[in-house]
Amino acid sequence: MAGDCHGMIDRRELLTAGGASLLVCALPGSALARPSLAEAVAGFTGGAPVQTGRVTLTIPPLVENGNAVGVNLAVESPMTAADHVRRIALFNEKNPQPDIAIFTLGPRTGRARIATRIRLATSQTVVAVAEMSDGSYWSSSASVIVTLAACIEDLS
Label partner for 121 (CA 20 to 30 A): which of 2, 78, 79, 112? Predict the structure, then answer.
């Protein structure tokens, strides 16, 4: 477009853009694939170990409609300046995106409790991970059977 006042793309720009498009198309399917549940959790924790406990994940084991699934989270913490929950993340196994939500808390929150609704594509495992102020990570998981799926993308 340099030197062109009419908004036309010159040949060099077109070839550069086309080459970049071909590069994306040539990437293997795994390079464009959705990260696994373990990879998503590791991304949240920075690879730190995750312990089971301190987090209570309450979600119905059987839901009729995956469009609005009620979820309650609670983390055992005194929520003081010295000992509190920094973040709580929700992850799923089979939705198009593995991370559902990340909630940021602090000592002034009072209680580490969250209630929300999520969409689930199909029957799967949901995992909640809490990051504590001491740098430790705690988790809980639950399996959910969904009879009417939501947020499914046609990838064919």
Answer: 112
Q: What is the sign of the dihedral through the CA atoms of 82, 42, 138 and 118?
A: positive
pTM over 0.90: no
The size of the chain, in residues, is 156
Distance, CA of 114 to CA of 71 (rounded, Å): 8
Strands 62-63 and 137-146: parallel
pLDDT band, residue 35 (cuts 50/70/90): confident
Query: Phi and psi dihedrals of 132, rounded to 5?
Result: -95, 165
Helix, strand, coil percent values for the chain (each to nearest 5): 20, 35, 45
Q: Tell me phi and psi for residue 90, to 5 degrees.
A: -115, 130
What is residue 156's predicted lDDT score, i.e. its pLDDT?
A: 52
By DSSP bridging, strand 124-132 and strand 137-146 are: antiparallel
Q: Which CATH number fits domain 34-146: 3.40.50.2000, 2.60.40.10, 3.30.470.20, 2.60.40.2470?
A: 2.60.40.2470
